[in-house]
Amino acid sequence: MVKASEPTNVSKPSGEGANDTPPSPKAPPVEIPHTLSIRQLADLLQASAIDIIKQLMKIGIMANINQVIDYETAATIATNLGYQPRPKPRITQSLASAIGETKKQPTKDEELGGLRPRPPVVTIMGHVNHGKTRLLDAIRQTNVMATEAGGITQHIGAYQVTVNDQKIAFLDTPGHEDFTAMRARGAQVTDVTVLVVAADDGVMPQTLEAIDHARAAGVPIIVAINKIDKPEANVELTKQQLTDAGLVIEEWGGDTVCVQVSAKEKRGIPELLESILLVAEMEDLKANPSKPAEGVVIEAEMDKTKGPLATVLVHTGTLKLGDTIVAGTTWGRLKAMFNDTGKRVRKADQSTPVELLGLDSVPQVGNIMTAVASEQQARALIQKRQLEIKQQAPLVTLNNLFDQISAGQIKELNVILKTDVQGSIEPIRSSLERLGTKEVQVRVIHSGSGNVTESDVMLAIASKGLIIGFNTDTERGARRLADAEGVSIRNYDVIYNLVDDVNKALKGMLEPSYIDVIEGRAEVRAIFTATKKQKIAGVYVTEGKVSRGASVKVKRQEQVICESTISSLKHFKDDVKEMNAGSECGVGTKDYNDFQVGDILEVFRREKR
Ligand code: GDP
Predict the structure, then answer these.
(1) Per residue in 263-290, is it b (16+ CB within 10 Å) or e — as a string?
(2) What is the gyration radius of the CA atoms in the chain, in angstroms?
(3) Is the CB of 384 under 6 A from ligand 1?
(4) 29 CA distance to ligand 1 centroid (A)?
(5) Does 264 contact ligand 1 (Cβ within 6 A)?
(6) Tell me, what's the pLDDT at 90?
(7) Would you say the CB of residue 131 lies under 6 angstroms from ligand 1?
(8) 407: CA distance to ligand 1 center in Å?
C-alpha cells in the first residue's frame, strides 16, 4: 500500500502543486475509507483516475489505477482538489442499520470516547494446494500451543493468536469463495488477507482470482510466499509474477508487504504475524467494547443433541451470557458460549470467535448478529430485516442498468468478464472501460479465461455487478445460483455485439432480452386419458417444483417439442397448486396431448435480464 510515511512525506506535501492551506469551510465534505484504490478515490472525488495519478505524482508518489493508498494520502489529494476529507467509519452498512434500529444512536463523543483498538480479522487465500490449510495449522501450533495446556483441538471455524501481547483472529475457512459468499450476504468480516503463493508453482489462476476478490472488497493483501524449503522453489520468479499481476512488493519499490515462509518447517511465521499487525495498524481498526455486541455468523449448523449452533465473530461490543440476540432472522437467549478451544466462556469481546447456543433456529452464514434489550426488540428487528430482504433492490442487469443510473442507484457498473482465451480479455476490458460516462464508470473487477463459476456469481452478488461471457459456458451450479439470486450472465460470440449492448444499456437504448429461469423438472412415467380430448402425464418431479399455471417446455431427447402452460395438476384425485421434488403427480397442459413416457417437462418462468 502507498502510505504517507513513504519517501515523500504526504502529510507535509511540498513541491509544485502541493497545497498546504487548510480546506475552505465551504469545501464539500467527502468520507474516505481507511484504504482505497486510485480508481475508487477518483470516483469519490468525481475526477478522472488520470487526474488523481497526476496529483499523486505532484507529491512524489507514482501509482497505477488499481493501487491501494491509505487515508492520509487520499485525504491530501482530496484537500488539493477542494474537498474536506474525513475518515469513513469502519462499519458495514448492514451492521450500521442493524445497530441504528435496536438502540439509541450514541452521540459522536460517546462513540469516539468508547472506541478502542480491536484485533484484526484475517482470511487466508490462494491457489489450491499452495499451503493455506498447512499455514493456518502452523500459525495455530506456533502461537496457541504455548498458552493452551495439553495442546489444542480446533472446535470452531476461527481462532485467535497472541503476538507481542496483541491479538489476531484468523478465519479457518481458507479461500476467497467463503470470503465473498459472506460479503454477498452483506457482511465483511475480514480486515486483512494473506495471499499464499507456493514458490514452486508461482502465481496461478486462483491466485489471480483471490487478488481480484480481495480488491473488490477493498481489503489489503499481504503476500506469503510459501514452500521456500522446497529445492525447486523459485522466489524471484514468483515475485516477478506477482508484479505482473499488479502486486509489486516493497523490496521492488512497490507497496505490497511480502513474507517468505515455510508452513512445513514453520519458518517465517513470526515475521508474517508481525506484518499482519503492521498492516492492521495502518487500517486503524477500532470498536466500542462497552456497547451491546454485534457480530457476524461465520458458521451455523443444527446439532442433533444441542439444537441450533452458530459460530459468531464478535465485531464490536461485548457479548454476555444471558443476552437476547438476533442473528439474521433467528433469535434467542444466550444459554452457553464456547471459545475456539471449546472452553465455556461468559463473555466475548471484539474480534473474538465464539460458538453460541440458544438460538431458535439455524441462522445463515454471513448474517449479522445483534444483542438487543428485550424479546420485543428482537421481534421488531426480525420484522425489519424480513422487510429489508423483500425490499432489496434488484441486482443490476443490462436491462435495468439505465433505470438504476437514472435513479442514482449506481455510479459504477461492475463487470466480471470471462472469456475462452486469455488474449480476448484486454481488448474487451479496454473497450468496456472506455464506455464509462460522467454518470457511471465501467469497471472490470475480475476477468479470467474459463467457464463462469459459482465464485464469479458470488463476486457479482457481493459487488452488485453482472457477468459477461465471451465464447464461454456457464457451469451448472453457477447458473442455478445466478437464477436464484437474479444475477445477470450475458454470453456473446462477437466482441462488437458485446460492447454495443453495454453501450446501449448505458444509454437506455437496449432492447429488452429475456431468459428462461428453470423452476422445476419432471419425468413422464405414464400416460392417462382424462377425457377424449385430454391426456394427462403421470410424472415424477425430479427437481424444484411443478405448479399449476406455470409455463412448461416438453422435451424429448434434449429437443423442445412444445411450449405450453400447466392447466391441471393433480395429486391422486386432489387438485393441487404445486408439487415438489420427490413427488408424483398428474399434469395436464393447455392444447397439448402427445406426451410419451420418458419426456421431460421443464417448468420455467421468463425473466427480463
Ligand atoms: P491448500 O489447498 O492451499 O489448503 O494446501 P494445503 O495446506 O492442503 O497444502 C497442500 C500440500 O502442500 C500438502 O501436501 C502440504 O503438506 C504441502 N505444503 C504446504 N505447505 C508446505 C511447505 O511450506 N513446504 C512444503 N514442502 N510443503 C508444503
Answers:
(1) beebbbbeebbebbbebbebbebbbbee
(2) 27
(3) no
(4) 48
(5) yes
(6) 52
(7) yes
(8) 49
The CA distance from 67 to 51, in Å, is 15
- CA atoms of 238 and 404, how far apart (whole Å): 42
| Site to substitute for ligand 1 among 129, 141, 259, 267, most atoms within 8 A of C-beta | 129
Inter-CA distances, 325 with 138, 267, 302, 333, 374, Å? 34, 42, 18, 6, 9
Cα of 152 vs centre of ligand 1, distance in Å, is 21
Index of the ligand 1 atom closest to the CA of residue 196: 3
Q: Is 363 in the pocket of ligand 1 (CB under 6 A)?
A: no
Please report which helix (H) or strand (E) contains residue 133, including its range.
Answer: helix 132-143
Give exposure, 228-251, as e/b (b: 16+ Cβ within 10 Å): beeeebbbeebbebbbeebbbbee
- Residue written as cell 459472506? 182
What is the distance between the alpha carbons of residues 292 and 313, in angstroms, rounded to a whole number?
14
Could you tell me if 566 and 546 are in contact, meaning their C-beta atoms sit under 8 angstroms apart? yes
Angle subtended at Cα 157 by Cα 135 and Cα 166, rounded to the nearest 5 degrees: 65
Whether the pTM exceeds 0.70: the reply is: no
For ligand 1, say whether the CB of 464 is within 6 Å of any of its atoms.
no
Residue 317: which region, alpha, beta or left (left: phi > 0; alpha: psi -120 to 50)?
A: left
Q: Supply the pLDDT for residue 94.
A: 36
Regarding the beta carbon of 120 and ligand 1, being less than 6 Å apart is answered no
pLDDT score, position 105: 47
CA 160 from chain centre, in angstroms, equals: 23
Measured CA to CA, the distance from residue 124 to residue 144 in angstroms comes to: 18
Q: CA quadruple 67, 73, 79, 85: dihedral positive or negative? A: positive
Which amino acid would we find at residue 73?
T
| Per-residue pLDDT at 10 | 31
What is d(CA 378, CA 593) in angstroms, rounded to the nearest whole number? Answer: 54
| Residue-wise pLDDT tens digits, 356-372 | 999 999 998 889 999 99
Interval between CA 215 and ligand 1 midpoint (Å):
25
- Highest averaged pLDDT of the listed ranges 10-14, 41-45, 155-159: 41-45
Yes or no: say if 130 and 242 are a contact pair by the CB < 8 Å rule.
no
- Give 134 Cα–ligand 1 centroid separation in angstroms: 6
Weakest-pLDDT range from 108-117, 254-263, 375-384, 435-444: 108-117
Mean pLDDT of all residues in 174-196: 86
Q: Is the Cβ–Cβ distance between 49 and 36 less than 8 Å?
A: no
Give the burial class of 301: count Cβ atoms within 10 A of its Cβ; 0-12 exposed, 13-18 middle, 19 or more buried: exposed
CB 446 within 8 A of CB 467: no
